[in-house]
């Protein structure tokens, strides 16, 4: 099945099973805004717990905060967001649709990549086991020609984005003959800059009101509080501050479901280090964060680093952790060495000294910062994409199953009476009443047992417990495992110890040691 179709299925599965709903759906929705349903919120909370605990419990020198969404507007002047948090936009005069000029060009680069990949796959089939991909890439005229076009385009694009040079971006779109996917025409306007921050007014009367912004990242709340935390927590450098919270960006192009949203959630950690040591810490954080991702067991081949060649003026190293989504490798997390840019800017704009006093050297300095920044919603999407499977069974049927890591699954255990009579529902409730203090359980008595198993598979429940007539006499139940569909007869008294450890966040955290 084409990856596009797989993705469509994942999106509709998210809606059908209470994971993600379009916001304001009965009013025809609101672009790039989504609500999480009863299962989605559980999965999302588990992701956040996994991150939060990995940061604050596994590192003695990292603590958390929860800063307000509204902040003094000068913060965004100091951070550069008022002047430079822009995307280059372009309109098509025929369809009246708006696009990000950089995204149109990146899509064009991806088309060249796809073309090369198709050639490689065709050759692989033709040559079989003797196929040497590297040699083929070097010798195939067709591949060489496409690669040259691709590399030239990439070089022009990278140069145009410095600045950025808006005319150069438009010229690339014209030269590449990029057409609007809706109108099919090349009738483009000029490229213009568009600021992504949402603004609103704070204050009761028009005279006294102040323009404030919905924060476009949570990081600035950490920067402006770093000295409060350092002093009240008696933190010594190096130390980190973690935060999870909403961020808002007026994205021009809303695409790929919850991949690019206008209201989303970030999990950010700023790690404050002594000047000159930041490039020692940067690779350590790269490794720590990759380990966190890979502990989920999705396979190392589905992740890669994308080191930034061209750096923002305030950064001296930056990389993205990319995950293989059905629409290609995409950024899920950014790791940036941000120098002392943000803290210095806040010193300058606030006029207050926010230097760190080092008791060992008796010196004061502005710390340097390594930032790890991951989107909760993108993480959620990557997990759903990897977990979703339509599995062909031996009996010819297909089952839809979410192979979620047990610790992240919304429901850990479903308890089901085989029939709705003879005291079985009461026994099932009794079991839930024991287990519910330890993890999330669900009671289900409707429909055949096969249908109930399928319903639980579809939301990723790792364990199902079935109560039958024998249970009443032997105190045993059938425990069914989601991934293998194997069943085992176990004592009711053993259920908690069998399940609890495997579904706890601690089971994931232990893999990080
Ligand atoms: N403080 C640094 C910062 O905000 P970023 O690369 O702009 O860096 C970090 O964002 C992460 O936030 C991204 O890797 C992505 O996971 C998530 N993110 C950014 N924009 C998003 C959007 N519009 N929708 C969903 N997630 C987004």
TrEMBL record:
GO molecular function: ATP binding; bis(5'-nucleosyl)-tetraphosphatase (asymmetrical) activity; glycine-tRNA ligase activity
Biological process (GO), any one: diadenosine tetraphosphate biosynthetic process
Keyword annotations: Aminoacyl-tRNA synthetase, ATP-binding, Cytoplasm, Ligase, Nucleotide-binding, Protein biosynthesis
Lineage: superkingdom: Bacteria
Oligomer status and interactors: Homodimer.
Ranges where the Aminoacyl-transfer RNA synthetases class-II family profile domain occurs: 150-410
Magnesium is among the record's keywords: no
Gene expressing this chain: glyQS
The keyword Nucleus is annotated on this UniProt entry: no
UniProt: ATP binding residues: 249-251, 259-264, 331-332, 375-378
Organism of derivation: Xylanibacter ruminicola
UniProt-listed CDD domains: GlyRS-like_core, GlyRS_anticodon
Protein name per Swiss-Prot or TrEMBL: Glycine--tRNA ligase
Membership in a protein family: Belongs to the class-II aminoacyl-tRNA synthetase family.
Protein residues bound to substrate: 100, 217, 264-268, 371-375
Catalysed reaction, written as an equation: tRNA(Gly) + glycine + ATP = glycyl-tRNA(Gly) + AMP + diphosphate
Matches recorded under InterPro entries: aa-tRNA-synt_IIb, aa-tRNA-synth_II, aa-tRNA-synth_II/BPL/LPL, Anticodon-bd, Anticodon-bd_dom_sf, Gly-tRNA_synthase/POLG2, Gly_tRNA_ligase_bac, GlyRS-like_core
UniProt function note: Catalyzes the attachment of glycine to tRNA(Gly).
Gene Ontology CC, one term: microvesicle
E.C. numbers: 6.1.1.14
Cell compartment(s), UniProt: Cytoplasm
